[in-house]
Write a structure and sequence with these properties.
The complex is a heterodimer of chains A (232) and B (218).
Chain A (H helix, E strand, L loop, with lengths): L7 H4 L8 E4 L9 H10 L4 E4 L11 H5 L3 E6 L6 H8 L4 E4 L2 H13 L3 E4 L13 E4 L2 E7 L3 E12 L4 E2 L8 H7 E12 L18 E4 L17
Parallel strand pairs in A: 1-2, 1-8, 2-3, 3-4, 8-10, 10-11
Antiparallel strand pairs in A: 5-7, 6-7, 8-9
Chain B lengths: L4 H9 L7 E4 L3 H4 L11 E4 L3 E4 L22 E7 L2 H9 L5 E4 L3 E3 L4 E2 L2 E2 L3 E2 L5 H7 L3 E4 L11 E2 L14 E3 L3 E6 L2 E7 L5 H6 L5 E2 L10
Parallel strand pairs in B: 1-2, 1-5, 5-10, 6-11, 10-12, 14-15
Antiparallel strand pairs in B: 2-3, 3-4, 6-7, 8-9, 12-13, 13-14
The chains are: A alpha/beta (232), B alpha/beta (218).
């Protein structure tokens, strides 16, 4: 099954104003840079973006915030972006903050056909307001619902033409979960390989979850907190 | 003498036990990895999807795809593993991680913790903190005893939005080691040269002080 599209423009066909999209990545690690650039170029508006973070000023989802293309963000941590904070505190941007583990599991559940699950995370805090509580093993848990999206956009290290994906190091993060939860999942890869080139034992996301795949270009892979030690 | 951040990290490192998997939060907790007592072997979990974190890379050897939960570039040690975020929080929620060390803005005498939001001022989000504190059996908070305005951070009740309820077991500050049992802080140790009176004066929550309070051995 050939899922290859020629370029990022073709990959993003069908993404329209007002849609909900998931974008993989943790911080700036493992984000679909090419696709974010294309969304800026397309000018798609009123997006609901599900992403663990919101990029930084001038990179990642920060680019879509600057152009005010995002109506609502669903994230766990947004601390590195001044424009985000400004839009949120002024009320221009709707923000739904979710514990990171619940966000990951809600994406996984969405892709796995599980409508909701109980978790202890957030019990007794403001994020539990209005949510059903049940006691399991003597401990209160809150009901969290699955998340799905019109489109999920993920970034992988290697992919084959059938949509099988392999991620590199910590750039895996939310990508495999969001790949499962998109009605249409688009994979942007550093290296697009012929079918059969990837060892089936080593595949992280089976191609069944991916509808479109394309070879990304000129990945900047910006580092948010470059931290090094001295050589002795 | 009150401890500095390194002193706090060194004292917390004494809590590490052989064979533990440990999650360290951002800030002072990250420093704990530098002071593992000799003969103790632990493995560090980073909730963005890494087990077996090593030291920071040498200049020029950074890899943008290899970061910790604080988004810092890291390295891995032999035996390391990478995994997705759902698997990562399965380790945390499923109590496969034996110790969590994190920072806080406030801790209450019944073990509530607040560290993610100052209404109207700062909203960074909870990241993985709510999942960590809701599930971990063993949570140590590393923080300063007072905030920048000089107000105690060890309170009767937290004033800021909570991250978790009745979950903190131990607090290590620049002045003291305290455990939280049955709705009170219990003074376990004091920093070298710090008086019990100073700790009492700077602790707003209910504080139980035994007759003899040993100094920390660092």
């Amino acid at each position: 099954m050939n899922k290859v599209v020629d370029n990022v423009t073709d990959a993003l066909i069908g993404i329209q104003d007002g849609m909900t999209i998931m974008l993989g990545g943790f911080g700036l690690c493992g984000i679909p840079e090419n696709s974010i650039g294309e969304l800026v170029r397309k000018g798609t508006k009123r997006l609901t973006c599900i992403s663990n973070n919101a990029g930084v000023d001038g990179f990642g989802l920060g680019l879509l915030l600057e152009t005010k293309q995002i109506k609502k963000m669903i994230s766990s941590y947004v601390g590195e972006n001044d424009e985000f904070e400004r839009q949120m505190l002024s009320g221009e941007l709707e923000v739904d903050l979710i514990p990171q583990g619940s966000l990951a599991e809600r994406c996984r559940a969405g892709g796995a056909g599980i409508p909701a699950f109980y978790t202890p995370a957030g019990f007794g805090t403001e994020i539990a307001e209005g949510k059903e509580v049940r006691i399991y093993n003597g401990k209160p848990h809150i009901l969290e619902e699955a998340l799905t999206a019109d489109f999920a956009i993920v970034k992988a290290w290697k992919g084959d033409t059938a949509g099988n994906l392999v991620y590199k190091a910590a750039a895996r993060n939310f990508n495999p979960l969001m790949a499962m939860a998109g009605k249409i999942t688009i994979a942007e890869v550093e290296e697009l390989l012929p079918v059969g080139a990837l060892d089936p034992n080593e595949i992280h996301t089976p191609g069944i979850f991916v509808q479109r795949i394309f070879q990304g270009k000129e990945f900047e892979k910006r580092i948010e907190q470059r931290t090094v030690r001295k050589r002795d | 003498m009150a401890l500095d951040k390194i002193g706090i990290a060194k004292r917390i490192a004494q809590e590490l036990q052989n064979g533990w998997y440990v999650n360290l939060g951002i800030g002072i907790p990250t420093l704990v990895a530098n002071y593992i007592p000799s003969g103790i072997e632990v493995e560090f979990q980073s909730e963005n999807g890494v087990l077996g974190m090593g030291p920071f890379p040498f200049d020029g050897e950074e890899d943008a795809d290899l970061i910790n939960a604080g988004k810092q570039t890291i390295t891995t040690l032999p035996g390391a593993a990478f995994f997705d975020s759902a698997t990562s929080f399965a380790m945390i929620r499923g109590q496969h991680v034996q110790l969590t060390v994190l920072g806080a803005m406030e801790v209450s005498q019944n073990g509530d913790i607040a560290n993610w939001k100052i209404p109207g001022k700062m909203v960074k989000g909870m990241g993985g903190a709510m999942d960590l504190v809701a599930s971990a059996d063993n949570i140590i908070v590393a923080m300063m005893h007072s905030n920048k305005a000089g107000e105690s951070k060890l309170l009767i009740n937290c004033s800021l939005p909570l991250t978790g309820v009745a979950c903190v077991k131990k607090v290590v500050t620049e002045l003291a080691v305290l455990s939280i049992i049955d709705g009170a802080f219990h003074l376990i140790e004091r920093a070298p040269g710090v008086s019990v009176e100073e700790i009492i004066a700077k602790t707003e929550g209910r504080l139980i002080v035994p007759e003899f309070v040993p100094e920390m051995q660092l």
